[in-house]
């Protein structure tokens, strides 16, 4: 039986004490479903002005690092976030942009030219299924079905599974989408660890927070230490279990959390 998580907004004193008692804060967040609400058209997703302003002020705190980890391509994520002083990880962590603008990719990863060549093939096989949106990225491909009928996900599974058979790619389920990702021992959790290892100072007494709504965020929750804050944004996608230790009831509460974090950082200074 899944343990009922405490809403982090109801544990404000615990969070405030952890921030005030730390030397540095690392705040990680997903984008879609966390900083931005889930929308029917993925290209139309936008971070609210409120969330952007909170993040901008948090980034200006010299004792805080912010990392945004997303399934979007790095270029797409960068255009959506459009903030300086932020670590960015696109393609579920397969491409990471450091604060100096340099980009890291894990060893062994390679562009998916063979897969891109099959996009027309995928489109022809799925032409009778209305409401699909294909999102090619540098190292992976996402097939969105948010605009399709409710049973579309299961209809797509055998079609896409056959396409990846015998390739260096695997089929993974996402939130109203199928992800075709390279078979590699690297995920969002590894990307978060990379960011943590590349902080410039005060790594010992570090207050760590990560906020996400997707099953891929579970890989990050799993590497957050027990004294940290792995915060699941609840959604209509029910997970059987989670490595999160706190929750937010919906995406709208993310702004309230960012406000608390900003206030506590200001009080500490």
From TrEMBL:
This is Trehalose 6-phosphate phosphatase. GO terms for biological process: trehalose biosynthetic process. Belongs to the trehalose phosphatase family. Its EC number is 3.1.3.12. Removes the phosphate from trehalose 6-phosphate to produce free trehalose. Keywords: Hydrolase, Magnesium, Metal-binding. One of its GO terms (molecular function) is metal ion binding. Pfam families: Trehalose_PPase (PF02358). The lineage of its organism: Bacteria, Pseudomonadati, Bacteria division LCP-89. It catalyses: alpha,alpha-trehalose 6-phosphate + H2O = alpha,alpha-trehalose + phosphate. Its cofactor is Mg(2+). NCBIfam families: HAD-SF-IIB (TIGR01484), T6PP (TIGR00685). It comes from candidate division LCP-89 bacterium B3_LCP. InterPro entries: HAD-like_sf, HAD-SF_hydro_IIB, HAD_sf, OTSB-like, Trehalose_PPase. Pathway: Glycan biosynthesis; trehalose biosynthesis.
């Amino acid at each position: 039986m899944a343990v009922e998580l405490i809403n982090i907004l109801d544990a404000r004193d615990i969070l405030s004490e952890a921030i005030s008692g730390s030397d540095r804060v690392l705040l990680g967040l997903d984008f879609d479903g966390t900083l931005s609400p889930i929308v029917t058209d993925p290209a139309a997703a936008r971070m609210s002005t409120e969330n952007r302003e909170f993040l901008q002020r948090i980034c200006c705190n010299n004792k805080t690092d912010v990392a945004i980890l997303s399934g979007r391509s790095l270029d797409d994520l960068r255009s959506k976030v459009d903030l300086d002083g932020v670590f960015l990880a696109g393609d579920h962590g397969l491409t990471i942009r450091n604060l100096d603008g340099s980009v890291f990719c894990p060893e062994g990863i390679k562009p998916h030219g063979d897969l891109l060549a099959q996009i027309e093939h995928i489109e022809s096989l799925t032409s009778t299924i209305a409401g699909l949106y294909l999102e090619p990225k540098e190292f992976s491909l996402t097939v969105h079905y948010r605009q399709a009928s409710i049973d579309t996900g299961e209809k797509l599974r055998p079609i896409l599974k056959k396409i990846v058979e015998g390739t260096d790619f695997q089929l993974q389920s996402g939130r109203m989408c199928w992800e075709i990702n390279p078979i590699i021992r690297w995920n969002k959790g590894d990307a978060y660890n990379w960011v943590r290892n590349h902080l410039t100072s005060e790594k010992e007494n570090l207050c760590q927070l990560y906020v996400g709504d997707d099953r891929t965020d579970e890989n990050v929750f799993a590497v957050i230490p027990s004294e940290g804050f792995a915060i699941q944004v609840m959604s209509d996608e029910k997970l059987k279990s989670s490595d999160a230790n706190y929750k937010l009831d919906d995406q709208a509460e993310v702004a309230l959390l960012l406000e608390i974090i900003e206030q506590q950082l200001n009080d500490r200074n």
